[in-house]
Amino acid sequence: HAQQRLLTAPADLEVIVESRDQPEAGLSSLVALKDDQLLIVPSTAGRSPPLQQKRGSYKVVVPSVKREPGEATPTHGDLGRPVRLRLEGREREMELSGLKKYGFNEVVSERISLHRRLPEVRHPACLAQQYAATLPSASIIICFHNEAWSTLLRTIHSVLDTVPRRLLREVLLVDDLSQHGHLKSVLSEYVSRLEGVWLIRSSRRLGVAGCRALGAARAVGDVLVFLDSHCECHRGWLEPLLDRIRTNRSRVVSPVMDVIDWQTFQYSAVPEPRRGVFDWKLDFHWEGLPKSKDPSTQPIRSPVLSGGALAVDRHFFQKIGGYDPDMLIWGVENIELSVRVWLCGGAMEVLPCSRVGHLERSHMTYQLPDDDVVERNKIRLAETWLEAYKPIFYKRDTVAYFIQQAESCNCTERVRLRQRLGCKHFQWFLSNIVPDLYVPQDRPGLSGELYNVGTGYCADYKTVWAPGGGAMDIRPCSGNGNQHCELNSVMEVRWGPMGRLCWDEQRGRVVLSPCTPKRQTQSSQQWRMVKKGGQLVHVLTERCVEAVLGGVSVAGGRGGAQNVTAADRGLYLRPCSSDPRQHWHFDQLVAP
Ligand code: LR7
Ligand code: MN
């Protein structure tokens, strides 16, 4: 505590300073040695640079910050405004190393108050909403692994600043075996001074699901609220969640997850309404919905919820099996929980009047123990819940398929849980919760990698995935499932893990466009396979698909040979011939 106390500083002392009258100095500040003084600069990274000086007495000086008369609160990042710093020298170095270490600008974060105000982003109608006088109490569970000091503390304080005392049973911080020095005794000491906040340490790296399960096991509140360790809660965020659960204990609800920018910490409201979905590679996406006539205060049913902020009745959560304890480190646990909630008697919703900001990092900062962590979690999800639909996933993610072949997943416990709870079948989820999700047919001989005999390459897509579509490409066969496609019974060639893109024709090229409903009349998205010659015929023009590699000369339609550059590489429609570059077959990568 910096209040004019003398500190005795041994070498390499870490000094943490808190100033009551100058919150903008940050909770911890860069402490530089100047003569016999420790100078506190309102900027830093939670730790002082190691002091080179010997043991001695130092006076702590908090530099005064120029302020308008009567201005009590700091201005950096206030109301979610972007903070742009032009740093030089040592501070610039700190900025760059922070970016690398955390995937966000830690120096900016250090300059922002732990109690900053957020902009009002709720629909005006939300402000008039009434909630029951008596609401269930909440246990807020915040798991962290090597989180930065300022973001973790801002998360905690934003909870304490926004949740009425009567609704807050406790805040449980769960340390998932962090190594960073500032998360050790310094944090314990800091937390011990916060009423209602408890720190639990795990002696094993548990990962997101395991860590949350540990917190849940200790919690005593009526409702569990899981929160990422770098969030900022908007005023009034908790009441809508608790009220919705109060009226039906099997509802699992989430705020709208707004975005905090990793460079400037700007708070931005995301477009609404949106819901969470997954594709056939079992990856999670947010998806915008058409604006409905309902007022923007109404809950939005969501097939899947992200894990960033999630509220669930404690008894209901435990009854349906908590989090799958065998989910590794990171990923998929949110999809698994969502599917389970829907199939075992609950519902998932986003509540537009509840908003929480989540800091989106530029990159993932922790090392996963091996490359296949997410794949293994997907296998657990598939083996436990997908039943007959499993092969659709494995065909699009052959890495997962071969892992499962080599060491079959031990999911019997979870399958038994599914049976004990009498959960519905996955087919029910498909037809009732995601009726608009395309279910591939994957017919033998008409699905798989599309191999071109003339080039020895496979049909591919220029970029990974864009909602609008684009030109088809021809590339070396990948074998990993990313090039999987199918010719289905309505003559479409469907592409992409969502199955929403279809082969189409545009100026003589094969392109992808969003699939359109097929009527009686012929569509430009219809294709036919000639089994004997292996040709793929565009029904509307009666032309054949020909693979064209860059830098070679190909036979042009009527005009003879023409030069093709790398940029022109792709699939073209040409008069049908016996050219091997018009010869295709579907290669199955995994057993049906
Ligand atoms: O080993 C670990 N142990 C942990 O305790 C790894 C992580 N964690 C903590 C971590 O400190 C953080 O608090 O778990 C939380 C989630 O990890 P993040 O923040 O590193 O990852 P993320 O933001 O990409 O997380 C998303 O995916 C995760 C998959 O496991 C979880 O479901 C997160 O809740 C989820 N976050 C969001 O969905 C935020 C909202 C996104 C939007 C919009
Ligand atoms: Mn996160």
SSE layout and pairing:
Blueprint: E1 6-8, E2 30-34, E3 37-41, E4 57-61, H1 89-102, H2 106-111, H3 124-127, E5 138-144, H4 149-162, E6 168-175, H5 185-192, E7 197-201, H6 207-218, E8 223-227, E9 231-233, H7 238-247, E10 251-260, E11 267-268, E12 274-278, E13 284-288, E14 300-301, E15 309-313, H8 314-319, H9 333-343, E16 347-359, H10 373-386, H11 390-396, H12 398-406, H13 412-420, H14 426-432, E17 447-452, E18 458-461, E19 470-475, E20 484-487, E21 493-495, E22 501-506, E23 509-514, E24 527-530, E25 535-538, E26 543-548, E27 553-556, E28 560-563, E29 570-574, E30 584-587
Parallel strand pairs: 3-4, 5-6, 5-8, 6-7, 10-16
Antiparallel strand pairs: 1-4, 2-3, 8-15, 9-16, 10-11, 12-13, 14-16, 17-20, 17-30, 18-19, 19-23, 20-21, 21-22, 22-23, 24-25, 25-26, 26-29, 27-28
The chain binds ligand LR7 and manganese (II) ion (MN).
Structural write-up:
The protein has 592 residues and is α+β, with helices and mostly antiparallel strands. Among the domains are: 1-70, no CATH class; 447-587, Trefoil (Acidic Fibroblast Growth Factor, subunit A) (Trefoil). It has 14 helices and 30 strands. The strands form seven sheets. The protein has an eight-stranded antiparallel sheet with strand order 18-19-23-22-21-20-17-30, with no helix packed on it. Strands 7-6-5-8-15 form a five-stranded mixed sheet, with helices on both faces. Strands 9, 10, 11, 14 and 16 form a five-stranded mixed sheet that branches. Strand 24 and strand 25 form a beta hairpin. The chain starts with 5 loop residues before the first strand and ends in a 5-residue tail after the last strand. The site of ligand LR7 has 21 residues, from strand 5, helix 6 and helix 9.
